[in-house]
Every structure is written in structure tokens, then in C-alpha cells.
Specification:
The complex is a heterodimer of chains A (291) and B (235).
Chain A: H1 2-32, H2 39-55, H3 61-82, H4 92-114, H5 130-136, H6 142-164, H7 166-176, H8 178-183, H9 188-210, H10 220-235, H11 240-260, H12 266-280
Helix pairs in contact in A: 1-6, 1-9, 1-10, 1-11, 2-3, 2-4, 2-9, 2-10, 3-9, 6-7, 6-9, 7-9, 10-11, 10-12, 11-12
Chain B: E1 2-11, E2 14-24, E3 29-33, H1 40-47, E4 55-60, E5 63-64, H2 70-75, E6 78-81, H3 93-100, H4 108-121, H5 123-127, H6 138-151, E7 156-160, H7 168-183, E8 187-192, H8 195-201, E9 204-209, E10 212-217, H9 219-224, H10 226-233
Parallel strand pairs in B: 3-8, 3-9, 6-7, 7-8
Antiparallel strand pairs in B: 1-2, 1-4, 4-5, 9-10
Helix pairs in contact in B: 3-6
Classes of the chains: A mainly alpha (291), B alpha/beta (235).
């Protein structure tokens, strides 16, 4: 039984990271209808920004986290200003190609600066959670607890921001009716920039939470972004609760697949689950679940 | 108050507006008649800054609106209640209304008063304030749209086809609300296909056909005109 719960814990850890990445992706898609393939590069950029802050600047983990969020939000806003806002009236294919171009560009820049080697960000609190090991026989590295707690805190903060603040309301208004939002005097440029900033910051935080138990390398965002797309398709494109639940589903499927089937098969299983769920429910798991 | 001079708008090679000149004086209720595709909505979208004119000028109280952002135009006191309502369907009625006051977010006290006035004008909205706007009937959604526009504190209110698709009794109710809004001091430019009903409440009217103004006059004159009667009233 404890092996089962061990997988649940692992699944929630992975799911937390996926959910945070998918949230940013779904926000941008819901509001601007841009399938932002370069979102994976933001995830990677966040990891390198934190790596830079902690090695070159000697920042501690939490300072590095904030630094990465700010830098990556800046990169996301720049990409909106310089690329996506200029393609607003062009066919959707142009957004997609531009996004892939951006992905490759950001990846190439990271590789030029830091090389193709793997890097590590040290765990801020090494070790495992003793209480869980003694009382439940579960091995829970502290970093995994930080990932889950961090994701939950961010999700709650995002939810409160979107539903309780005027700026949050302008984001939802733009998602629900772009022209209506314009007519009440909402500045769509500003909302687009805020949305990209949030999506970049979420991707960066997800990366900085994740890399102490993983590795930093230029292509690290690729598989994550692919899975994030799987998640937002599963959850219903543009749906915030769908992104969270979809992320958890994929995280759990992966960790159970890795344990009960084979570690080598975990990505296969995640994508097989996508194909299966979509063939049964082409509209996603949460169709019409209002943003 | 509001003045368009030679407004010309192209969609690609299609000319939607061809030298349209109209003016609405302070306190007036002016009706813009015209069939589907005559250019009424194009004119309104151009006035509120959502479409860019090819030629001509639009002035609000002497201020040139050319190149102004939609948000700046709302702030200047020109609010557009669009055809098809363009509500935020997943948000509550109250939130829709409050977003109408977005440009006045630094003066929430006055917005509370206006919200109360809107609820006074449309009591059903107070009852349904927590329901998603998308769940309301067409007439009620139109009330939300008008209420949302009023929350923007318009000096000039553009109303695009508020009666479209509504039952006759509801049309009457909506047009009475428009008349009351005008009587309370708001200048109104109203686009309508429902000519007979609209002319009853208008001070003046224009007729738009194929992107051009073909007639202007008092409601009584237009109601007597044989061509108008045939085209818009069916009698």
C-alpha cells in the first residue's frame, strides 16, 4: 500500500510542475488564441535564469526563484510585443510558425551562453521528510514537498487574482469577448502583456521548483511543453481548472506507468492516455467549463 | 456634440462607408435607419475606434477622435452598446455591469450610484445579478448591455440595434428605456431596422443606404415619405 501512495506522491509532484506550465499556456491560448510553442523555451529560460542567479550572483534559492520569474516574464512580454502582437490579424498558422521559431531562437541563445552540457541547481533543503518516512513509510524528498506546496499556493493566488481583482477581470473579459472588452475601455495591449508576463512567470517558477530534482539543459522544455499541450487539450483549451486537473492526471498516469509498467515507457503511456481520452471524449475532459 | 465629416471606411476592396456626414447635438436622440449591411454598424465601429477610417473625421465635442484608442474614446464620454451585445457570458450580471465602469475605476463611489440606477431601471437585473450573463434571455441580455454602457458614464451613447431579435413587447420596453436615458440628459445615436418604433422616440433621423446618407429629417417627415414607408415600415 505504501508503494501505491509513494506513486501518488510522485505523480502529484510531476503533476504540479505540469499544471503550472499548462496554466500559462492555457491563459495565453484562452485570451489570445495563440498556441504558444515557445512556452517550453520560457520554462528552460527560467531554469537558466535561476542557475545564473545562484552561480554567478550567489543568490540563495528563493531569490533565484524570484529573479527567474521576473526575467522570464520579461522575455514573455518581449515576445508578445515583438512577435505575436504583430501577427494579430494574420492567419493562425503564422503564430504557430513564429512560436516555433522563437522556441529555437531562445534555445540556441541558451546553448550559446551555457553550452549543451547538463547543469544542476542544488536542492535548497536536501534530505527527505522524516515524519512521513517514520509514520507512513513514504520517501518524500523535501524538494518534492516544496514543489507541491509551491504549485498549490500559486494556483490559489492565480485564482484569487483572476476572480477578485479588476485586472484579473479584464483578462477574463478579454477571453470571453474581445470586442466587448474593447468597448468598455479595456486596453487589450495591456491585458495581452500582463497575460504573457503571468504565463512566463508561471513557467519559470515551475522550472525552478523542478530542476533541483532534475537537470538543466537547452532542450529541457521540449518534452514538458508537449505534455502541457496534451494537458490543455485534455482539460479543454483555455480552461484554468482543466489545466490544473489535466496536469495532475498526466502526472499520475506517468508515475503509475513508470512504476507498474516501465520507466522507459512513461512518456509513451502519457501520450497513449491522450490518444485514448481524446478518442473517447474529443471535446476534452471539461468541455464548456467556463474560464 | 458628435460630428462625422465625410467618414469613409473600406473592408479590402469593399467600401462600407462612403463619405458619411452626420451630426448629433447635445441632448438629441437621433435615429439611424438602414437595412442590414447598409453600414450602420461600420459607422458605429469607426466612431468608437474599433475600425480605422480611410478618410474623413470624427469629432466629439470639438475633439478629433482620429487615431484615438477605443479606451480613450470611452474615457472621453462616448460609449458604444454594440449589435449582438458582446457581453461576457461566463461572468455574473453584476460583474458585467461593473466592468462597464472600468475606465472610471478610480471613482468607485459614483459607479455604485450608477449601478443602483441601472438596477432601478431594469429591476430584473438586480434579481439576477449573480447569474451568468449568458444564461439570461435575449431581452435581459440587452438590458445588461445597455446597463453596462451606462456604467461607462456616456455623454454620447451609441446604441446598435438594441431591438434585434426581441419579442415586440420587449422591444417596446427597451425603446422606452432608451427614451428615458435620453430624457435624463444623455445624447443618443440609435441604429434601428425597426423604423416605425424608433421614429416614435426620435428627434431627428438619417437614412443610410449602401454606405451613404440618402435622407435626413424630422421623424414626421420621414414617416410621410413614400419610399421610407415602403422600405422600412412596410405600409
Amino acid at each position: 500500500m505504501s508503494l501505491f501512495f509513494q506513486q501518488v506522491l510522485n505523480g502529484l509532484t510531476l503533476g504540479s510542475v505540469y499544471s503550472l506550465v499548462a496554466l500559462g499556456l492555457t491563459l495565453v491560448y484562452g485570451i489570445l488564441h495563440i498556441p504558444n510553442f515557445s512556452h517550453g523555451a520560457l520554462f528552460m529560460a527560467g531554469a537558466y535564469a535561476a542557475f545564473f542567479a545562484s552561480t554567478a550572483l550567489g543568490a540563495n534559492y528563493w531569490v533565484a526563484l524570484v529573479f527567474a520569474a521576473v526575467v522570464t516574464a520579461g522575455i514573455a512580454v518581449l515576445s508578445e510585443r515583438l512577435v505575436f502582437s504583430r501577427l494579430r490579424d494574420k492567419p493562425p498558422l503564422h503564430d504557430m510558425i513564429a512560436a516555433i521559431g522563437l522556441l529555437l531562437l531562445i534555445e540556441a541563445i541558451a546553448q550559446a551562453i551555457w553550452g549543451a552540457d547538463f547543469h544542476r541547481l542544488r536542492e535548497p533543503y536536501p534530505g527527505i521528510w522524516q515524519w512521513l518516512r517514520i509514520n507512513a513509510g513514504l520517501v518524500m524528498p523535501i524538494q518534492r514537498g516544496i514543489i507541491i506546496a509551491g504549485a498549490v499556493v500559486l494556483m490559489i493566488a492565480l485564482h484569487l487574482f483572476l476572480t477578485r481583482t479588476t485586472t484579473g477581470a479584464t483578462i477574463i473579459a478579454m477571453a470571453q469577448n474581445r470586442e466587448g472588452a474593447s468597448l468598455v475601455g479595456i486596453d487589450l495591449t495591456r491585458v495581452s502583456m500582463i497575460t504573457f508576463a503571468i504565463s512566463g512567470a508561471l513557467a519559470a517558477v515551475a522550472a525552478v521548483l523542478f530542476v533541483p530534482i532534475s537537470l538543466i539543459f537547452p532542450a529541457m522544455g521540449n518534452l514538458v511543453i508537449l505534455k502541457a499541450f496534451v494537458i490543455i487539450i485534455l482539460g479543454g483549451m483555455g480552461s484554468v481548472p482543466g489545466a490544473i486537473l489535466g496536469g495532475m492526471v498526466i502526472g499520475l498516469v506517468e508515475s503509475f506507468g513508470a512504476f507498474y509498467v516501465s520507466t522507459d515507457m512513461k512518456d509513451v503511456i502519457a501520450f497513449a492516455a491522450l490518444v485514448l481520452i481524446l478518442s473517447l471524449r474529443p471535446e476534452g475532459l471539461f468541455p464548456g467549463y467556463a474560464r | 456634440m458628435l460630428r462625422c465629416e465625410g467618414a469613409t471606411l473600406d473592408y479590402g476592396s469593399y467600401r462600407a462607408l462612403d463619405g458619411v456626414s452626420v451630426h448629433v447635438e447635445a441632448g438629441e436622440l437621433v435615429v439611424m435607419l438602414g437595412a442590414n449591411g447598409a453600414g450602420k454598424s461600420s459607422l458605429f465601429l469607426a466612431i468608437s475606434g474599433l475600425r480605422r477610417l480611410k478618410a474623413g473625421a470624427i469629432r466629439l465635442g470639438g475633439r478629433d477622435l482620429a487615431g484615438a484608442k477605443p479606451s480613450a474614446i470611452v474615457e472621453a464620454g462616448l460609449v458604444h452598446c454594440p449589435e449582438g451585445r458582446k457581453l461576457f457570458p461566463g461572468m455574473s450580471v453584476e460583474k458585467n455591469l461593473r466592468l462597464g465602469a472600468y475606465v472610471h475605476r478610480r471613482d468607485p463611489a459614483r459607479s455604485e450610484e450608477i449601478l443602483d440606477e441601472v438596477f432601478g431601471m431594469f429591476p430584473i437585473l438586480r434579481e439576477k445579478r449573480h447569474d451568468p450573463a449568458g444564461s439570461l434571455s435575449g431581452g435581459q441580455q440587452q438590458m445588461v448591455a445597455i446597463g453596462r454602457a451606462l456604467m461607462g458614464r456616456p455623454k454620447v451613447l451609441l446604441l446598435d440595434e438594441p431591438s434585434l431579435g426581441l419579442a415586440p413587447l420587449v422591444v417596446k420596453q427597451v425603446l422606452e428605456a432608451v427614451k428615458a436615458i435620453n430624457a435624463a440628459g444623455t445624447t443618443v445615436l440609435l441604429a434601428e431596422q425597426n423604423a416605425f418604433a424608433a421614429l416614435q422616440i426620435a428627434d431627428r433621423a438619417y437614412v443610410l443606404e449602401n454606405g451613404r446618407i440618402v435622407m435626413e429629417g424630422e421623424p414626421a417627415t420621414l414617416l410621410r415619405d413614400e419610399g421610407i414607408r415602403r422600405a422600412y415600415i412596410g405600409a
